[in-house]
User: Fold this.
Amino acid sequence: MVANYTVNAGDQTLYSGSDPQEARRVFLEAANDPAYFECRIQLLKGDQLLGEFLERIGYRQQDKELLQSIEKEGEKHEADDLKQ
Assistant:
């Protein structure tokens, strides 16, 4: 039986096939591609998870929301400083 390897980035399938070296290459390249920084990248052999890169810090939705709230707080403090 030939093993089926899959590389997923978020909802996208980047590779699906039986070549483990090609699956590994695609998996590692995706981890360094800015297009996939906000995605969870997974390397699977059938249904078995072999490896995973999580979303990069600063690109995750929660990081974006935190940054926005920090910026709003900073603007509020700047406005308060100008009033004084």
About this structure: The radius of gyration is 20 Å.
